[in-house]
Amino acid sequence: MKFTAISAISLAVVLTGGAAVAQDREGWPDSFTVGTASQGGTYFAYGSGWANLVADELGISGGGEVTGGPMQNMALVHTGDAAFGMTTMGPAAESLAGTNPIAPGLEMTGACAIFPMYQTPFSVTALASSGIESVSDIPDGARIGFGPAGSTSDTYFPQMMDTLGVNYDRRNGGWSDLGGQLQDGLLDVIAFAAGVPVPAVSQLEVQTDVNIIEFTEEEQAQLLEAFPVSSFEIAADTYSTLEEPARSVSMWNFAIAGCDLPEDFIYEVVDIVMSDNERMVNIHRAATSTLPENWDKNTVLPWHPGAARWFEENAGADIADDMIGG
């Protein structure tokens, strides 16, 4: 059988899923990175997972990159040093306003929202042997690990502890490192803002007895009044240590992309992530909230045009024109 020009075109259509798809890939990147956070945290596990999923589905090289977390991710995506990143609404608002501590005065308008991820609960963990069972039990001058410098934890949790009247010695580091320091007695408390279950806390549970400390109703009310957070309960089945839900507060996370990336490329990325939640939950349990209907939790960032089109076509989203970037 002759392998004609027509046959070659037909084969190309089969391999790409259609001639339109092949044409749409003009201008697409050959590779990409997703700015996550430190190893041992939810951002790294979740971000690396969806990066690998997208890379496999689109046949493009891609993966997660260790970063300092939401603030740095906003900067990396704004400058084009990373195609994608992950951020929380608080750091996103600060970055747009030009108050990101990484680049004070720079309004990071080059980063656009592409899909909702999950809520980040603020949770406190101590060794059971410490006797710390509540926030009020934390002794004056306690050595508290707040996560990587510039992360959501490091940006907001010290302020929260100030609000709750806790006096502390502030420490920073990667999630895995801080978990190890707590176990070795080098820290008294770790205060994590991360999707649950936090891998470092789950690892601690396997190795030693820990207390996962909830906020009292009064403490929760204080934080809700003072910070851009929502009420949250850490489900009892999140950690083996918990016997009942733990009262907390949380902040929404969104995936971000460079606003100038091709619209069709971002549409396909969003479609892969949002069209099969089971695959995302298999990557990380926090993805139970990675659902189309949560598009409206973004009240801060401009949407990438490709993402806006996906949510308008598939989730009935009504996104105002002035909330679409690019």
TrEMBL record:
Superkingdom per UniProt: Bacteria
Gene3D superfamilies: Periplasmic binding protein-like II
Leader sequence segment: 1-22
InterPro entries the UniProt entry points to: TRAP_TAXI
Stated name of the protein: TAXI family TRAP transporter solute-binding subunit
One Pfam short name: NMT1_3
Keywords: Signal
CDD domains: PBP2_TAXI_TRAP_like_2
